[in-house]
């Protein structure tokens, strides 16, 4: 695309942007009295302005109705979570019955592993990616030890080739074939948190299942960010947090997916609780667990409605916008950011190395870049000058140009601040 690194050109792109109006739907922090350029939606999304009304509604119902709010609130708490099924299923490409909201991400991954990791003497190995997000590493190792096994004998990490930043799909497929009949589970992050690489979930899922294993995905950096077709890809299970690209608030409730092919398998192990029990018979307080046929059958406890309220506000915004429109802008604005980085690198005679794949199908709303020759002082300069970004050792910054609230002019302005920061350190 024939971009230009000028403010006027960036403003022209914003004028043509059909999603530009949603920028005003969010609260932005300010630094030195100026609205920030916010690049950390891959860690915590901005707060939608409509969120407060959703939370206030629950607070008002609690004040006026107390326990009766479970059944007589405008959005009864009893079935509050069911409002997520239709809009959230569109975000992840699922049937409404295949998605639910509950707990937090790592808790949900633990619950999914209870069902989908049942090692035997012959089939016990787990394939995951090298340098997965630490919580996934801890979770998988603890599950392995829970079964009385040693992680070094069970966990098979897909590694990057020497001198490369991203994992090759063929290497994953080859490793699945190599592990073969010993493979019990493939569990990988759909988008690598460090590099922003998007994995070919459809192909990897089929390969894992053809080998006789279950396949699940951690979609922390994927939900609300990339095109997903969990049902059609035949994914066994998945889970995601809601506070990154889906803007539901710090540490908020997680989403989970269980494919319908598992809904009627009552022999599948699970940790059960009364909120997963047959809804129509729940208050009969029966001693034997009768799971809801669907992802809701994996719920355990009464849901935290105050936490769900911000998530519902965001999910309904996503339903308004639609993933195709988000992805279209995501690809455009990410490409423009990449262009700006190359331009600034050339102007300052720098040594930037973008480690995120350049193909749109292999990256999402993130660019991770090595700033060779620069130190943490540059990151601190950016933060002090109104660019909120993420620093990872030794000298990587992660930039997430979230399409709902980032503008093309933000990309241009970031380039100018970055340029001044580098030049100021060279004086």
What is the compact description of this entry?
This protein is α/β, with parallel strands linked by helices and 427 residues long. It contains 13 helices and 17 strands.
Mind explaining what this structure looks like?
With 427 residues, this protein is of the alpha/beta class. It has two domains: 7-47 and 322-426, Alpha-Beta Complex (Aspartate Aminotransferase, domain 1), CATH 3.90.1150; 52-321, Type I PLP-dependent aspartate aminotransferase-like (Major domain) (Aspartate Aminotransferase, domain 2, 3-Layer(aba) Sandwich). The protein is built from 13 helices and 17 strands. It has helices at residues 7-16, 51-65, 69-72, 85-92, 105-116, 134-146, 151-154, 169-179, 201-210, 305-321, 323-347, 376-384, 408-426; strands at 26-27, 30-31, 34-35, 37-38, 47-48, 99-102, 125-129, 155-158, 183-189, 214-218, 237-240, 254-258, 352-354, 367-371, 387-388, 390-392, 396-399. The strands form five sheets. A seven-stranded mixed sheet has the order 6-12-11-10-9-7-8, sandwiched between helices. It has a four-stranded antiparallel sheet with strand order 13-14-17-16, covered by helices on one side. A two-stranded antiparallel sheet has the order 1-5. Strand 2 (30-31) and strand 3 (34-35) form a beta hairpin. Helix 5 (105-116) packs parallel to helix 6 and helix 11 (323-347) runs parallel beside helix 13 (408-426). The protein is globular, with a radius of gyration of 23 Å.
């Amino acid at each position: 695309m024939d971009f230009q690194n000028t403010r006027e050109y960036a403003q022209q792109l914003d004028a043509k942007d059909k999603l530009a109006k949603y920028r005003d739907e969010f609260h932005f922090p300010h630094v030195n009295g100026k609205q920030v350029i916010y690049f950390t939606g891959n860690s915590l999304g901005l707060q939608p302005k409509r969120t407060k009304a959703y939370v206030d509604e629950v607070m008002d119902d609690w004040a006026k109705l107390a326990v009766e709010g479970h059944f007589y609130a405008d959005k009864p708490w009893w079935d509050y979570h069911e409002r997520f099924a239709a809009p959230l299923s569109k975000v992840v490409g699922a049937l409404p019955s295949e998605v639910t909201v509950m707990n937090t991400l790592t808790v949900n991954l633990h619950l999914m592993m209870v069902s989908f990791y049942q090692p035997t003497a012959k089939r016990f190995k787990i394939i995951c990616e090298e340098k997965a997000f630490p919580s996934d590493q801890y979770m998988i190792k603890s599950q392995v030890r829970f079964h009385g096994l040693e992680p070094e004998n069970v966990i098979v990490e897909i590694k990057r080739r020497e001198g490369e930043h991203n994992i090759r799909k063929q290497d994953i497929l080859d490793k699945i074939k190599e592990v073969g009949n010993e493979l019990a589970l493939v569990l990988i992050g759909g988008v690598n948190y460090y590099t922003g690489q998007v994995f070919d979930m459809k192909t990897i899922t089929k390969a894992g299942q053809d080998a006789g294993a279950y396949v699940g995905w951690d979609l922390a950096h994927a939900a609300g960010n990339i095109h997903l077709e969990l049902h059609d890809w035949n994914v066994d299970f998945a889970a995601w947090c809601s506070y990154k690209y889906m803007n539901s608030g710090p540490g908020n409730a997680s989403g989970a997916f269980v494919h319908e092919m598992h809904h009627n398998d009552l022999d599948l192990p699970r940790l059960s609780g009364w909120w997963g029990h047959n809804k129509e018979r729940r208050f009969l307080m029966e001693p034997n667990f009768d799971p809801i046929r669907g992802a809701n059958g994996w719920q355990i406890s009464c849901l935290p409605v105050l936490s769900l309220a911000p998530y519902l506000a965001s999910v309904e915004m996503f339903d308004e916008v639609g993933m195709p429109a988000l992805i279209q802008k995501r690809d455009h604005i990410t490409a423009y950011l990449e262009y700006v980085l190359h331009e600034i690198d050339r102007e300052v005679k720098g040594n930037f190395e973008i480690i995120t794949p350049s193909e749109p199908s292999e990256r999402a709303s993130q660019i991770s870049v090595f700033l060779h020759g620069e130190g943490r002082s540059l990151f601190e300069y950016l933060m002090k000058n109104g660019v909120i970004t993420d620093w990872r050792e030794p000298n990587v910054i992660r930039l997430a140009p979230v399409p709902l609230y980032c503008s093309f002019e933000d990309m241009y302005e970031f380039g100018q601040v970055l340029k001044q920061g580098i030049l100021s350190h060279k004086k």
